[in-house]
Amino acid sequence: MKSRCPxxxxxxxxxxxxxxxxxxxxPFCCNRCRMIDxxxxxxxxxxxxxxxxxxxAEDISEETAKGENAASQRDKAEND
Length: 80
Ligand SMILES: [Zn+2]
Known about the structure:
It is rod-shaped, with a radius of gyration of 22 Å. The protein has 3 helices and 2 strands; from the N terminus they run ββααα. It folds into 2 domains: 1-47, Erythroid Transcription Factor GATA-1, subunit A (Erythroid Transcription Factor GATA-1, Chain A), CATH 3.30.50.10; 51-80. By secondary structure, it is mostly helical. It has helices at residues 14-23, 31-43, 54-79, and strands spanning 3-4, 11-12. The structure holds zinc ion. The site of zinc ion has 8 residues, from loops. Zinc ion is lined by residues 5, 7-8, 10, 28-30, 33.
């Protein structure tokens, strides 16, 4: 029976499934697809983490923190 790799949708015939079992990455067609699927679960969705460079990610979180601080300080002033 043929099956499809859940990641890249490549059709695996019985020989392909056999070799993926032997490689330890069944039901995926190859180890790369297996790692992609694991990363997907760890990340919580379908984003590819490597798309954001570490420096850029830091900038984004810094901006967000500043914005939240300013907002909470404003709220405090109003409540006082
Ligand atoms: Zn695949």
